[in-house]
Amino acid sequence: MSIELRNISKKFGDFVAVDNINLHIETGELVALLGLSGSGKTTLLRIIAGLERPDAGEVLFHGEDASDVSVRERKVGFVFQHYALFRHMTVFENVAFGLRVIPRRARPAEAEIARRVHELLKLVQLDFLADRYPSQLSGGQRQRVALARTLAVEPKVLLLDEPFGALDAKVRQELRRWLRRLHDEIKITSVFVTHDQEEALELANRIVVMNQGRIEQIGSAEEVYHHPANAFVYNFLGNVNLFHGRIENGRVFLGDTAVELENTHAHAHPETGKAILYVRPHLLEIVLKPNGKQTFPATVKSINPAGPQVKVELVAEWGDLVQVEIDHERYQALHLETGANVFLRPKEQKLFVYQI
Amino acid sequence: MASQSHREPKRPGTADPPAVRIALITIALVFLALFLFIPVIAVFAEALQKGIGAYFAAITDPEARAAIRLTLTTAAIAVPLNVTFGIAASWAIARFDFPGKQMLLTLIDIPFSVSPVIAGMLFVLLLGVRAPLGGWLAEHGVRVIFAEPGIVLATIFVTFPLAARELIPIMQAVGSEEEEAAIVLGAGGWQMFFRVTIPNVKWGLLYGLVLCNARAMGEFGAVSVVSGHIRGHTNTMPLYVEILYNDYQFAAAFAVSSLLTLLAIATLAAKHFLARRAVPARHEQDHLAVKVAA
């Protein structure tokens, strides 16, 4: 089922949680709502579910206005951030709940309910835990029970609020892969909320980057990461260095050093020429000798060689802290040591510049 | 200094000297014995003073049976009403923000802060034959004061915070997520209420019910004012005990008292059992809250 949001707004008191949002989600898509806490992503998800009523705008399911359709009748599945499993019911009863509350006329027989519950528990690989209570399960197991419980009612749309937020890193990765596979299998229109950019980039067909109740960019992982629409998106997706500089006659000045760069996003302040520049750590190169107007001096402050890349922290001539990631081969060739004076060179001419 | 600490096994820094500990425990035990155990034993000793036959005669006396019946009837009306009110009030307070919420919380506590005698007086002033409302009721043949309805009303008044007070913190701790989950899964309002809301608070609810029942059966002050002490009609068990005592029928007075004491002991046992059941659930909540905070 496709979902369409038209001019959705929602306020809590004076706080604008969702500010005039338009969004179309195709049938079978897996969409991530990505943003910091307070960006309105959970509120938007709850509005789609019908748990929250928007102050303005409408929600369309399959082209039909669902504004007056109650939560019960929307046929959405909602997985809560902390799972909201019924603590006084066994895993089996939790999954069976959605079937047991169907009006008697339409309710499947007990044997059919049992069959479907076990089928779902097998799907989430937890059939052996059917008689346990939620408090006896690990976080990852609870999450999968919550999913099975949601799928039991055969929802047309699956909504997940921070589905892996409360899990540790290892389990999170595993469940992420598992959810991806599940989605490929059952092709249900899914929307999940996350503040973890890595999760969004890895899992979603499309990412909706949200900030202060508005959408900053909608696009594939490739689009939002490599072609960010604005500074917020660039800053939010991945590590980033931030420089305060000036732009004069198309030349970028960092401190007293003029670095010659082309600017596709030259948004300097019209009068002072002040600008903020963003550069990702892996897009800076460390060299030992200056190279005209393309490099600027810096001093190595600390080196962390653990991990696939060597993380070097430097202090630029004008005092800003700079993070650079280089590969191990390059690191060994440079013979870097703390305190060494080196030069930094942007690898790409397209620095991201944003007006102050 | 150092050698001394080697010779003497040292107490942990947080422990009190043994003398202090023994003194405190002794004081507590003596106090308990004086004010709790001895009186309870005394009640039964006095009650059985004239033999088991007299004891049973005293509690099967028609007036005694009327008092027992009235007490049970009163509790049977007051307890369900207050449990219903308690669920409604705690639900409203825990789930919704509305103007006057703080006011409602304060109002619920009034019966705790007002002397029961004054509560009884209020009902007499409001519903006595001389009062406009009471007069109007009397014209229509309804007697409230010096009759059973007054006793029930006074009992409801003094017991109504008990269930609500017990349920509000539990409802707040449990939160509304499971209820929302039930609705999203297709449950109707009543299905959600009976399958999710009530089971989640059931131990707290039973605990409140036990407290409410104990107070309803034991209430003296408010009931005494509105009752009129008509033997065989408007005497509850506590009132009947007072009358017997004033008539110098000590053995009978203590026999009826012993029934109330047994009720108190049963209540305490139930309370102890329920409190233990209720605590793990709350503990789990705390655990969850910590996780959320983290």
Descriptive terms for the model:
heterodimer, A: 356 residues, five-stranded antiparallel sheet, 20 strands, B: 294 residues, mainly alpha, MetI-like fold, disordered N terminus, disordered C terminus
Give a short summary of the structure.
The complex is a heterodimer of chains A (356) and B (294). By secondary structure, chain A is an alpha+beta fold.
Explain the layout of strands and helices.
The complex is a heterodimer of chains A (356) and B (294).
Chain A: E1 3-12, E2 15-25, E3 30-34, H1 41-49, E4 56-61, E5 64-65, E6 76-79, H2 91-100, H3 110-123, H4 139-151, E7 157-161, H5 169-186, E8 189-194, H6 197-203, E9 206-211, E10 214-219, H7 221-226, H8 231-236, E11 241-248, E12 251-254, E13 257-259, E14 274-279, E15 284-287, E16 296-304, E17 310-316, E18 321-326, H9 328-334, E19 341-346, E20 352-355
Parallel strand pairs in A: 3-8, 3-9, 6-7, 7-8
Antiparallel strand pairs in A: 1-2, 1-4, 4-5, 9-10, 11-12, 11-14, 12-13, 14-20, 15-19, 16-17, 16-19, 17-18
Helix pairs in contact in A: 2-3, 2-4, 3-4
Chain B: H1 2-7, H2 18-47, H3 52-60, H4 62-95, H5 101-108, H6 110-113, H7 116-127, H8 132-139, H9 148-174, H10 177-184, H11 189-218, H12 221-227, H13 237-246, H14 250-293
Helix pairs in contact in B: 2-14, 3-14, 4-9, 4-11, 7-9, 7-12, 9-11, 9-12, 10-11, 11-14, 13-14
CATH class of chain B: Mainly Alpha
How many DSSP E strands of chain B?
0
Helix content of chain A: 25-40%
* Count of helical stretches of chain B: 14
Order of helices and strands of chain A: EEEHEEEHHHEHEHEEHHEEEEEEEEHEE
CATH topology of chain B: MetI-like fold
Structural class of chain B: mainly alpha
Largest sheet of chain B: none
> What ranges of chain B have pLDDT less than 50 throughout 5 or more consecutive residues?
1-5, 280-294
Bin the strand percentage of chain B.
under 5%
Q: What is the subunit arrangement here?
A: heterodimer
